[in-house]
């Protein structure tokens, strides 16, 4: 049977890209390739949904080599089917849960989707945030209490390490020490440049028409040919999609009181549930909701 030691279980837009890339520096850690294989969850990214049982026979293909295996499929946390599926195979797994203030998380997620036109490609229109929030494919990732209630039916709280994403920005070394201790692996001296490899709005660039054509072409290239090329480019830190002819600079959207007004009531009650379940202090987030709520 496949081996899995830990899972970066969630959530989107909470520093998980940075964390996964930093942890991959440790030669003892084998991170899933791609970062989000999306095998366990029925949520295949933001829009994709597939309730078919996971094909566990192919799971090993997403890990290259031997070591401490970590899957970073961050949509797993909000998927209702994930806890039972994961528990049936890996009941003793360690779960790293990266969280962010829920409204700013949702706004960042929404902006990422509209920048890349992923909503349009999936038959949705998220051009207006209030409309997008009504779509549970966006809002469910911000309802931490709702998801946590399901997970605690199968896993104990001590199997979770819950991290506020702001801590990764302001005290990354301390967070990484906590992670190594939680995973019970030997401490490692990580390079923690806070902006490198982070999936931020500034680093994300909407694809041009030429870029879309190139992306379609590469989607037709067999994986056996594409994978070695991708690995070489990653090692050299080259992202062809950052070329001006292929992509353009994205705009930055600030989180405004109107965003909080749309989300505040439901998010606030969910945060109370999450804190009750986990004893994780969400006071600082609740204060933001109160201050910005009209």
Morphology? globular
How would you spell out the order of helices and strands? EHEEEEHEHHHHHEHHHHHH
Supply the helix-strand structural class: alpha/beta
What's the pLDDT, averaged over the residues?
89
User: Which stretches are poorly predicted, pLDDT < 50 over at least 5 residues?
Assistant: none
For the secondary structure, the number of strands is: 7
Write the layout of secondary structure elements.
Elements: E1 6-10, H1 16-23, E2 29-31, E3 43-44, E4 48-49, E5 68-71, H2 82-89, E6 94-99, H3 102-116, H4 118-121, H5 129-133, H6 136-139, H7 144-151, E7 160-164, H8 165-170, H9 172-183, H10 209-219, H11 223-235, H12 257-278, H13 283-292
Parallel strand pairs: 1-5, 1-6, 2-5, 6-7
Antiparallel strand pairs: 3-4
Helix pairs in contact: 3-12, 7-12, 12-13
What does this structure look like?
The protein is an alpha/beta fold and 294 residues long. It has a domain of 199 residues: Rossmann fold (3-Layer(aba) Sandwich), CATH 3.40.50. It is built from 13 helices and 7 strands. The strands form 2 sheets. It has a 5-stranded parallel beta sheet with strand order 2-5-1-6-7. A two-stranded antiparallel ribbon has the order 3-4. A hairpin with a 3-residue loop joins strand 3 and strand 4. Helix 3 packs across helix 12 and helix 12 packs antiparallel against helix 13.
